[in-house]
Specification:
The structure is a single chain. A hairpin with a 2-residue loop joins strand 4 and strand 5. It is built from no helices and eleven strands.
Length: about 130
């Protein structure tokens, strides 16, 4: 007695697909995948309600994008390997805003701080610490 079972090959993970969705523990990604990783344009929502919309590279936020935390804090600017790196603007719910450079998620180099009372100052930052 001989039994032959023919199986359909799995879908290729090497093809590029757009408008794909990946749901895991209430975390949702809608956008481009390449070889099973987020790649290109996409939007991800975390289970706490935080959201990133922008460019992905090798499964990490990389390029130009916008991240909105659940408390309403918002960063728009450059990303590299999942971190705020380069020029960007951070806005806080209380009306404060920082426009300048970032390195590994910290304010770094020259920038301008805008306060909720309308005042502003140019300042220099090194690894997240304001220089006098």
């Amino acid at each position: 007695f001989f039994f032959l079972m023919i199986r359909r090959p799995p879908r290729s993970t090497q093809s590029r697909s757009s408008a794909a969705s990946d749901v895991y523990k209430r975390q949702v990604y809608k956008g481009d995948f390449y070889m099973g990783k987020r790649q290109g344009q996409g939007e991800r929502t975390w289970k706490d309600g935080s959201l990133y919309r922008g460019t992905w590279e090798n499964d990490l936020m990389d390029g130009i994008g916008e991240y909105i935390w659940k408390d309403g804090t918002q960063y728009t600017g450059q990303w590299s390997k999942g971190m705020m790196n380069g020029e960007g603007i951070m806005k806080w719910p209380d009306g404060q805003r920082y426009e300048g450079f970032w390195f590994n998620n910290l304010r770094h180099s020259k920038g301008r701080q805008f306060y909720s009372d309308g005042s502003q100052e140019r300042c220099e930052w090194i690894n997240g610490k304001k220089q006098s």
